[in-house]
From TrEMBL:
Belongs to the UPF0065 (bug) family. Keywords: Signal. Residues 1-24 form the signal peptide. CDD domains: PBP2_Bug_TTT (cd07012). This is Tripartite tricarboxylate transporter substrate binding protein. Pfam families: TctC. InterPro entries: BUG, Bug_dom1.
Length: 323
């Protein structure tokens, strides 16, 4: 074989080897995608997913369907995502509870969202709000409520055992030096219904699902769980402002896929989500009382891991076990 022939053969081989690599660098969905929400319809997780699904669908050129798979504190839906084919078509709506609490509360499940998923990007954050029920609770501020809770038995509701709602209450009661009986519900909608029915004295739920009832007077908001006031309720103080300095527990949402999802699919989904989170989408989220989180998609895995570590420490200290 001449030197020219050898070079031509090597060049041809190089082209053949490079072609699959070039094709592998791009990915475009050819069928509908799913966002799996691990809580029932009607709660803030469901609301956030449905707001984001519409613009994400436009960017990907395929329908994006929201699918609710509730149970086991969110682990049923999470497990479904992890067991589905890791091809980019099944997406998890991630939450603080899934990443930061469940690995402790459901340790025997073997599910660890920080370890097992790749983040596509952040969607927003909300504060939990400590709301009491007028007619059942006399107090109108946090200090008065703590004093009242020390005088008589109380019952509080949460969106589920081990949820951020539950842990927000656990940390509050520990810092305030009070005790109350816990009634876990299966999501925000059942909790709100129980609070409206006055089945509990107080509860922690997000600004997304509590604000309308606070504004109507059905709930009395005493404090928010973040270090800054919720934009939806600027007159409600933070826990620190109300008398519990050092209290800081915010709730965030992201989209994620199984860790083994091919890099081209992850890259395309991140790009599409970044475009989907346009100003009009952010405004729709604000309308649902969800504030934006400024974390670049490429840095969101590290940001989530740090936040999850903090929540896991709280869950360990609280010694919370699954129902």
């Amino acid at each position: 074989m001449t030197q020219f022939a050898r070079r031509a053969a090597l060049a041809g081989l190089g082209t053949l080897l490079a072609a699959p690599a070039v094709r592998a660098q791009s990915w475009q969905p050819t069928r509908p995608l799913r966002i799996v929400v691990t809580y029932p319809p009607g709660g803030v997780n469901d609301i956030v997913a449905r707001i984001v699904a519409e613009p994400l669908s436009r960017e990907l050129g395929q329908p994006v369907v929201v699918e609710n798979r509730a149970g086991a504190g969110g682990n049923i839906g999470t497990q479904h995502v992890l067991q589905s084919e890791a091809d980019g078509y099944t997406i998890l709506l991630g939450t603080t509870a899934l990443f930061g609490v469940n690995p402790i509360v459901y340790a025997s499940s073997g599910i660890d969202a920080v370890r097992d998923t790749t983040s596509l990007g952040m969607l927003g954050q909300v504060a939990n709000i400590l709301s009491v029920i007028p007619g059942k609770v006399e107090a109108t501020d946090l200090r008065g409520f703590i004093a009242e809770a020390k005088r008589r038995p109380m019952v509080f509701g949460s969106v589920g055992n081990g949820s951020s709602s539950h842990l927000s209450a656990v940390v509050f009661m520990k810092m305030a030096g009070i005790e109350a009986t816990h009634v876990p519900y299966r999501g925000s909608s059942p909790l709100v219904a129980a609070m409206l029915a006055k089945d509990v004295d107080f509860g922690f739920d997000t600004s997304a699902t509590s604000t309308a009832h606070i504004r109507s007077g059905a709930f009395r908001a005493l404090a928010v769980t973040t270090t800054t006031r919720a934009s939806a309720l600027p007159d409600v103080p933070t826990m620190a402002e109300a008398g519990l300095p050092g209290y800081d527990l915010g709730i965030w949402f992201n989209l994620a896929v199984a860790k083994r999802t091919p890099a081209p699919a992850v890259a395309k989904l991140r790009e599409a989500l970044g475009k989907a989170m346009a100003p009009q989408t952010v405004e729709r989220l604000r309308g649902a009382f969800v504030d934006p989180v400024s974390v670049p998609a490429a840095e969101s895995d590290a940001w989530i891991a740090a936040s999850a570590g903090r929540w896991q420490a709280i869950a360990r200290e609280a010694n919370i076990a699954a129902d």
